[in-house]
Amino acid sequence: MNVSLSNWNEDATLLQTTEIFKALSDTNRLRILLLLEQEESSVGHITHTLNLSQSNVSHQLKILKQARLVKSLRQGQSKIYSIDDQHVSTLLKQAIHHTKHLRGEVSND
Fold first, then answer.
1. Which of 3, 64, 74, 77 has the largest count of CB atoms under 10 Å?
2. Where is the HTH arsR-type domain (predicted)?
3. What confidence tier does 16 reach under pLDDT thresholds 50, 70, 90?
């Protein structure tokens, strides 16, 4: 995909992209995304699995949801969270792959 500044509304797109990267700039939010990449989860499951407080998980999910990186579906009295779409998974995988490349853990492919 070739990105040309003349093909999109630069200000709005850059602003929203900045918000996505801000949302990705927290270790706990990345841990939550990695868990959701494996399985849809409730706040309770995320709390237990990642050993985080419920208030912390709820706060992080709110930020991720505002950035449209996760979505929720109500099941009974619980909300089940999942990755919003395949683009989020791809972005996450690419960022991790790039980090591993920088660390010399993977080849340049």
1. 64
2. 9-103
3. very high
